[in-house]
């Protein structure tokens, strides 16, 4: 079988992404990694953490430790560590889009991404709420953000949205769509034949029988009932404050949360180092780190690379399984 090829985007040039990519390039691997980024930024990151780095042509598909194939997407300005330059927003987004195009065209088997600084991209004049949304638009499909570690998988109905807008975005359709994409991904990429999914309510105590909000009764429960009639194994809507108790978590393959900060703090508290961020529903596997740009640590050589290593392992595993199984048939 041909060597697996994975695209790697370091993300914000002033953050920890580039140095973590240098560390990743030194890890043993049985797949080719092709980075999309700025050569000077990667070299500066390698110098800062005292690790050698040899950048090679993207066609070379090297698996040698310390070597990284690079498709250059040059920055406008060389940034200082810890200080994002909004002028580099175009280069950061260009790297993501070119890597995603490569995945869509079948040049790559999957995409691994480092952290992007959302404010710096917007300050650079590009409307951007997250890479999840960018990749969904690029591929023209609906997706779900799921963060996962060995303890829990959390999928979100809404992603990067002001809290004020969340209730209006929780509809029977968005809940149904999130559950369908999540269940299909658990079957396909995690080999769980009949996933058991816990679904959280939106309101305190899942609405307390309508006395603390009606979204559970009017929106979430009807969506669950509709899907149960199609054979989905769903529990909920559950009160979010106790759904993550270890004894309960044991029985679920994933938890669907209604919004970002309902689900992700629990996931990150339970295992920040090993967690990864997956975009479910794309035609290719995309796996990212679970942490941000950590501007306070950039260039100091102390940032933990575990999440990026886990992202690369997860992406390679999913890509290999998809290759073995063949392309998905979309209804
Ligand atoms: N995958 C992504 O693209 C992603 C994920 C989360 C946040 N972000 C973005 O990153 C920026 C900064 O976000 P933030 O400050 O809320 O979160 P952050 O994850 O960058 O930092 C939170 C804390 O965790 C620490 N930390 C983060 N990564 C670490 C690592 N690898 N090793 C050791 N410690 C680490 C930081 O030092 C900081 O104390 C924001 O623009 C945010 O939107 C991007
Ligand atoms: N919501 C993610 C997290 O908190 O880890 C993060 O912001 C990155 O999301 P994108 O991959 O959509 O940029």
UniProtKB/TrEMBL annotation:
Claim: NAD is one of the keywords in the record: yes
Q: Report the EC code(s) recorded for this entry.
A: 1.1.1.262
Name the residues that bind substrate.
132, 268, 277, 286
Kindly report, in one word, the top-level EC class recorded for this enzyme: oxidoreductase
GO MF terms here are: 4-hydroxythreonine-4-phosphate dehydrogenase activity
Tell me what else is known. The active site is located at the dimer interface.
Q: What is this protein called?
A: 4-hydroxythreonine-4-phosphate dehydrogenase
Q: Which organism is this protein's natural source? A: Lysobacter korlensis
The root-end lineage is:
Bacteria, Pseudomonadati, Pseudomonadota, Gammaproteobacteria, Lysobacterales
Gene name linked to the record: pdxA
